[in-house]
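Worked Example 4.2. Consider the chain below.
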Amino acid sequence: MPAGSAILAAARSPGAALLRLRRGAPAADPLRVHGLCVGTGYRRIAMAAAADSRAPAPADPLPKGADSFFRTVISNLEKVYLNRNPTAKTILELVHSYDGDHICYDHLAFRTFGVTGYGINSLADFFTDFGYLPREELRFPAKMLRAIWFSPPTNDGYTGTGVYGPLPRIFISELLVDELTAQSQEIIYKYIKTSGKGNKHAALASISGELTWEKPIYSDFQVLSRESEYAAWTLVNGYALNHATIATHRLESDIRSINKFNKFVEDNGFKLNSEGGILKVSPDGLLQQSSTVADSSLFTFADGITESIPRSYIEFAERQLLPQFKDLQDEEVKEQHRRDGFEVGNADKIFESTSKDQLTRRSA
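Applying the procedure from the previous section yields the following structure tokens:
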């Protein structure tokens, strides 16, 4: 079984994956997957995927009809995202006016509750049905989160940009709900129960901008906010796109350098997430990321209280050439020659784009 397939199998069916992955593997160093303990076989698979910074051979291209349908879904998801997040919309317009029609998305990211059926897989199934491959699990113990990222089917021959350009990676995270306090767990389960089978239609919720559970009351939102801002964000935003990411290295002007891109954004009056520094850099120096602070908007809770809540933000990423390809000419460089994947340290700081601390700094 390929590494990516095993990772998703463990998430979809922990019991079955446990039997497959433990064959011949010692039972030490357990890794929890949806409340089960999986041995080092699972960890080795995730580590092997992480160790190879180059993308694997992508899935076959989507048939034309499937490709058209998939991109229409992503386009509608993007419309909801841009309508709710004026910062992202304005920055995309500014980049287009400065650099031309060269904007490509590096990845799209979503947040979920790690409750059986409502976590990563509630959205992953849609993407894997359209040729995406699970690649690697990332863990964020302090935030009680885990994530899996997915690589797209082959991107050869694209002619457009944005959602009609090269297909983006997908990054889906989930809150490890059973690690929260009993009070927070009770609140989350209370709303999950009102969803019925809404979790089976997470992608539809993303493109409609609607919650699949009852609108929450303000006091529940406050309780979750005190323990996990991620939990509070997910309660009021559901499966909405958390952020889209511009691949700066695909631009053609001077702002293809992320440092110049960041200055361009700040010079146009936007504040960037300063957690851990404006620029988040992987240990190998090959993945560099930054992001704005989330937009906010008024939200009327079920008990009639109207308050401002964090919405989404826009991220920027520059992927450097892998060392073995450093001598390629510019016209020879393809995405597969660049650093692939994600970095826990970078992503941990990017998550803070929706935090109260960053929202406060934005208005300071």
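The first strand starts at residue 31 and ends at 33. The chain has one domain: 64-359. Compare this with Example 4.1 before moving on.
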